[in-house]
Specification:
Blueprint (H helix, E strand, L loop, with lengths): L7 E6 L7 H14 L4 E6 L9 H12 L5 E4 L9 E4 L5 H6 L6 E5 L11 H8 L6 E5 L1 H11 L2 E5 L25 E5 L9 H14 L4 E5 L12 E5 L3 H10 L2 E3 L9 H7 L4 E4 L14 E3 L3 H12 L2 H15 L4 H13 L25 H21 L3 E2 L5 E7 L6 E6 L8 E4 L1 E3 L2 E6 L10 E10 L5 E12 L8 E6 L2 E6 L26 H17 L1
Parallel strand pairs: 1-2, 1-4, 2-3, 4-5, 5-6, 6-7, 8-9, 8-11, 9-10, 11-12, 12-13, 14-21
Antiparallel strand pairs: 15-19, 15-23, 16-17, 16-20, 18-19, 20-21, 22-23
Length: 547
């Protein structure tokens, strides 16, 4: 069979993004249809009020994933005849349903997408996509069982496959040499995806670092700055498949959190012989089995307990390593994609699958928080509450102005500051910050006509990332007052991309400040940190006052 036989698969897809594992899965399934003689037409959902360059989409897809469909088209415009149609996310279903080609319609589901939203219109819209009569094919048996029990129309499911790059075997079948693991944990960090529950991961890491100060965490999967300023927390950003494999070999355990379906990442970790930790939730109890990984309660103390205990237990690591390798044995991406193609190319309609037949495979008790972890969690919560209280005390904003410092967790080339107080941002002002590497400052003068009262100001910081694009680095909300009797000289607050400090008076070296002279043995203004400049300025004021 070849593509001249007239077989066409019309896929309705979102705009691909770099590092999108879900889009890679769609491409792999399309490739399996291509082997059966289908031409794959990808109909991209158009963005709202934005231009879409399909040539750029095609080039980006090839660069990111190394594969692409036969044709890229715009959904809703000039659609052509097809043999079958496939929706791939909740917001693509209405485009497939509204087409009038009459071809069989399928719905490839990788997550229970209503859970992406709060109880709002999007939640209902995503939920209603399962009621359009499309034949549903899921990745994973839990998702198939859930949708079939609640909505019906499930055709079948595929198991999670693993790409050959993750299996530690050389081409001649010999096991490849692996480095000895460090006392380290790797974790997928994707704050832009709510289902990855990154805030929970961050709190668990803080607790784990307090329980075991010798641990190192390697975070990967996103270029968004990590909100923990600690040398033991290393952000790797987006990394390649080969780099993932090397990372898994060098760590004692891996953390991959997902609450809308199992992630593919734990299976890839298992194929590399890495023990895995996830959350004890409904979605993880059917596609994993006893002895293949650890599932912890969905709170920071329990997750930290699982991490610290597993990192210290070589015997448990060995046991989970064997259990994980057994689970993923012979689970390849090729078999997964072939299973998908077999389902959509078969003559069997939805209704043959019985969601009630899906049985729970993980029956072990969840990891519970230790008393020590609970004590650390309480202490960290109390410290956070004290910081919030202290942040309510306004910083003095004198006539001369204030100096704002931003210290980034990672070196950056440029930083800008947006400041406003009014709800409609009518008083918004932009400032180019002075500095380099990870330390930036700027002098902000007080607005005219403000004589009394306390105002809350928003400080938003933007940095130039490694690719030269402007990226939101974090924000702080700070009360400011001209009244010295109710204010404080300096305030500090952690933000997403680093730390912000605000001081009452101009500091030598700040942008718009007249001098950058050295004081009391401090290093030159170009290399001084904000704290050093503040200390030098205060020392000089005290000296001048004494004189």
């Amino acid at each position: 069979m070849n593509k001249q036989d007239g077989l066409v698969a019309a896929w309705y897809v979102p705009i691909p993004t770099m590092g999108g594992g879900g889009f890679r899965t769609i491409l792999q399934n399309a490739s399996a249809l291509s082997c059966r003689g289908y031409r794959n037409d990808f109909y991209v959902i158009p963005p709202v009020n934005k231009a879409l360059d399909l040539l750029f989409v095609e080039e980006s897809c090839l660069e990111w994933f190394g594969m692409a469909p036969d044709r890229w088209l715009l959904a809703g415009a000039n659609e052509e005849d097809r043999t079958l149609s496939v929706a791939t996310s909740w917001d693509t279903v209405e485009y497939l349903v509204s087409s009038s080609h009459g071809a069989p319609g399928f719905y490839f589901v990788q997550d229970y997408e209503p859970w992406f939203f709060s109880l709002d219109s999007n939640f209902l819209a995503a939920e209603n996509t399962y009621r359009h009569g499309l034949q549903v094919v899921t990745i994973g048996k839990w998702l198939a069982g859930k949708i079939d029990r609640e909505y019906g129309s499930v055709l079948g499911y595929t198991d999670f496959g693993v790409g050959p790059a993750y299996y530690p075997m050389e081409s001649d079948g010999r096991e490849s040499a692996q480095p000895s693991p460090k006392h380290a944990v790797c974790a997928i960090y994707q704050p832009e995806k709510g289902r990855r529950v990154s805030p929970l991961l961050m709190e668990a890491i803080r607790v784990a670092l307090a329980l075991d100060p010798s641990l190192t965490f390697y975070l990967y999967g996103s270029d968004v700055p990590v909100p923990i300023s600690d040398s033991r927390v290393v952000s790797l950003g987006l990394i390649s498949t080969d780099e993932c494999r090397e990372l898994y070999w060098r760590c004692q355990c891996g953390v991959s959190l997902s609450i809308s379906n199992p992630s593919r990442i734990p299976f890839e970790m298992m194929a590399c012989g890495l023990p895995v930790i996830d959350l004890y939730r409904e979605n993880n109890l059917f596609d994993f089995r006893d002895g293949s990984l650890l599932l912890a309660r969905s709170d920071a103390a329990s997750l930290a307990t699982a991490i610290v205990s597993l990192a210290a237990d070589r015997e448990k690591q060995d046991s989970l390593r064997k259990g994980g390798l057994n689970l993923v044995a012979e689970r390849t991406v090729a078999l997964e994609s072939d299973c998908f193609a077999n389902l959509v190319c078969s003559d069997v309609g939805a209704g043959g699958f019985d969601g009630a037949s899906v049985r729970q495979a993980y029956t072990c008790a969840p990891v519970e928080a230790s008393d020590e972890a609970l004590a650390v969690e309480r202490r960290l919560i109390e410290e956070s509450h004290r910081s919030r209280v202290e942040a309510c005390v306004p910083v003095i904003w004198p006539d001369s102005g204030i100096c704002v410092s931003f210290t980034s967790f990672e070196p950056v080339g440029d930083a800008r500051l947006a400041v406003w107080s009014s709800g409609d941002q009518s008083d918004l002002r932009w400032f180019q910050m002075d500095g380099s590497d990870a330390d930036f400052q700027v002098f902000v003068d007080r607005e005219d006509g403000w004589d009394v009262g306390c105002r809350t100001y928003n400080f938003h910081f933007y940095i130039n990332a490694s690719k030269g694009e402007s990226v939101f680095a974090g924000s702080a909300v700070v009360p400011l007052s001209p009244n010295a009797s109710v204010g404080k000289v300096e305030a500090a607050a952690p933000i997403l991309g680093g730390e912000v400090r605000i001081a009452e008076a101009p500091i030598p070296g700040c942008a718009c400040d007249a001098s950058s002279s050295e004081a009391n043995g401090a290093v030159s203004g170009a290399r001084e940190t904000f704290s050093q400049r503040l200390k030098a300025w205060m020392n000089r004021c005290m000296k001048d006052g004494a004189a």
